[in-house]
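re: ur question from earlier - yeah i can do the single chain one, its not a big deal. heres the input i used so u can compare w yours
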Amino acid sequence: MFFERPGGGERAILVHLDGQDPEAREDPQEFQELALSAGADTVAFVSVSRTQPTARYLIGSGKVEELQQRVKAEQAELVIFNHTLTPSQERNLERAFECRVLDRTGLILDIFAQRARTHEGKLQVELAQLEHMSTRLVRGWTHLERQKGGIGLRGPGETQLETDRRLLRVRIRQIKQKLEKVRGQREQARRGRKRADIPSVSLVGYTNAGKSTLFNALTSSDVYAANQLFATLDPTLRRLELDDLGPVVLADTVGFIRHLPHKLVEAFRATLEESSNADLLLHVIDAHEPERMAQMEQVMAVLGEIGAEGLPMLEVYNKLDLLDGMEPQLQRDAEGKPQRVWLSARDGRGLDLLRQAIAELLGDDLFVGTLQLPQQLGRLRSQFFAMGAVLSEGHDEAGSSLLEVRLPRVELHRLVSRAGLQPNEFLEQHTLQ
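and the output i got, formated as C-alpha cells:
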C-alpha cells in the first residue's frame, strides 16, 4: 500500500559526495549500477566535493541552488543521493527541488522490493521499508496543518500522523511475529538435516560476484541470474551430490554490499542464518573486479554482524573467463588444505576442482565406507540406523550385515567405544575395501 511504483523508468539525477574519509566514501560506479538496477533513467550525475556535510541539506546551499536549476532543466522526477540522509535533510531537499528525494538506503530497499519473489522475502523487505519509513512519515502530511499544539490549536495533521504511526507499529509487530515463525521453521529444517548428518554449504559474497551462476552450474538449477546488483534476494536450497562424500545442501543467499543498511541485516536475519549455521562457506569473489579486496572486507564485516566470521571458508575466485592467461587452479594452505579455487562458473572450467575442494574440507572428519557387522553386533547396527548414518544395507553369505555408512568419525568412535570395542582395531577388522 505504501510502495506503488511508476510504470516506466523515472528521470533521475544522481548526487555523489566525494569526501576525504575513505571509510565513509561510496563507490560512484556502484552507485550508478544501483540506480540502473532500480530502473532509473539517469539524466545527470553530479559529484560534490565536500569534507564536512551540512546539517540542513548534507551539501552546501550553493550546490542546492545549482541542483534546483538542473532538476528544472532536465525535468527530473527524482534526485538520488549516494549517502544516508536524515529525515529532516530529505524533507528540506524535497522542498528545495520540488521532487522526490531518495538516499542510498531507500534506493537499496526499492531494489529489494522489486526482486522479492517468495512470501518470506516480501515480508522481510516490507519490514525493512516500514522501519525506514516510520522516521519519514511527516513528509506525507505536509499539506495538512501541523501546529505547535495546545487546547484548540491541534490540527488534523497531528491526528492523522499518530494514526499512521500506530498502524505502522501494529504492522511491524505482525511481520516480526510471522518472520519469527519462519525462523523457527528454518531452524527445524536445519535440525533435521543435522540429524541426517547432511552437511550444509552456503554461498556468500559481494553482490554480482556470480553466486547464482555458480549455484546453477553446480546443481543444474535455473535460479535467476543476471549481471546486475541484487539479482538474488530469496534464498534457494538444493541438494548436491559429491563423490566420496554423498549429499550436501547448497544454499544461494542474498549478496552483500558496501555499507549494507543495518535495517536490512536485521530484516534478513532469518535468511542470513542459512550462512551463519553452515558447515562451510564458499566466499565467491569477482576475480575481474579491481576493487575486489575492498569488497572482500565488506563481506567479512557483514559475516561478523551475523556471527559467521569464524566458520570454515573456501575462497572461490570466479569470472576466470574475463582474465587473460589464467587457468583453473586449486591453491592450498601450508597444511595442504584447500584454500582457494580459481574457476569460471559461466563456462564450467574449474568446477571439478571446486567439488574436490568441498569434498576434502567437509570429508576431513567424516567416515564414509562399508562396515561388515556380524550378528553379535546387532545392537551397534541398530544404533547406526537410529543415527540416520546408514546409506544402504546388504548381507554376506555368513549372515553379517554390510552397512554403507556415512557419519562423523568422532561419532563412529564414540559408538564403537560404548560397545566395548577399540575404534582403530574395529575399523581395521570390519571395514570393507
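Residues 156-195 form the longest helix (40 residues). not sure if urs matches, ping me
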